[in-house]
């Protein structure tokens, strides 16, 4: 039994940057255990499997696996899978064209809409809309967050929010840092992670530093970020769309403006040698965030055949 796969680097415009993703095409009839074994074989932060949709109005059913478990939603796998399908499946590309360049993926978290990003007639990436509204969960102390990141408590910023588990489809412990240097010095403390996590469904920590400035004055709000998930077999993730989406939804919620359309640029993966750029958008109306989007460019890297036992 042969199954075709394509890999792509996500949230980058050049090969060997961003976050690598494997997309297994025509994954119907694969069992969950086979999908998990394939994801472990690739050993990327996620591998996706494309199946026929339950609802013919949707583009595909997509299942997402880390090396250790299936997840209900994630950012870079959605963006990368949309990019690959637009390039590899004439039927999917034609359906998206008739739907205004929109793919609809059925996932555990719900239906995830993705808008294809096109340039000079070619698909160069995609942008997703988070499938859930922001949920705010457990708050942890700065001392506990600092221990998980191998930092001092003074490195944790508290003036905007305390370290907190938040989600727009997949939960993360989001931690604001006081400086770019603190972000650079961050590294996961396995014992502290194991003592704290999983917490409210989160087994990963998203740490960020926000550049001074405001998009209302000029340009985008700029964040620099790192994600650590050693308990899931991922020491550091080069680009984490679901965590970035949760973080910007939180920050937009905490913004004092009642109405705002904010643009975000998140730099991730720089400190591990795989620079990534994630582009975010949030819409806020009457004090509530009504839309959270994350997108970026992709680059095709490899393609091949999985030779599975029949």
Please describe what this structure looks like:
- By secondary structure, the chain is α+β, with helices and mostly antiparallel strands.
- The chain has 2 domains: 2-128 and 297-307, Diaminopimelate Epimerase, Chain A, domain 1 (Roll); 135-295, Roll (Diaminopimelate Epimerase, Chain A, domain 1).
- The chain is 22% helix and 40% strand.
- An 8-stranded mixed β-barrel has the order 1-2-3-4-6-7-8-17, surrounded by 4 helices.
- The longest helix has 14 residues, at 75-88.
- The termini are close together.
- The mean pLDDT is 93.
Could you provide a short overview of the structure?
With 310 residues, the chain is α+β, with helices and mostly antiparallel strands.
Helix content bin: 10-25%
In what range is the share of β-strand residues? 35-45%
The stretches of 5 or more residues where confidence is low (pLDDT under 50) are none
* DSSP summary: helix tally: 7
Structural class, please?
A: alpha+beta
Shape: globular
CATH level 4 superfamily of the largest domain: Diaminopimelate Epimerase, Chain A, domain 1
Strand element count? 17
- Named CATH topology of the largest domain: Diaminopimelate Epimerase, Chain A, domain 1
What's the architecture of the largest domain, going by CATH?
Roll
Rg on CA atoms, Å: 19 Å
| Major beta-sheet overview | 8 strands, mixed, barrel
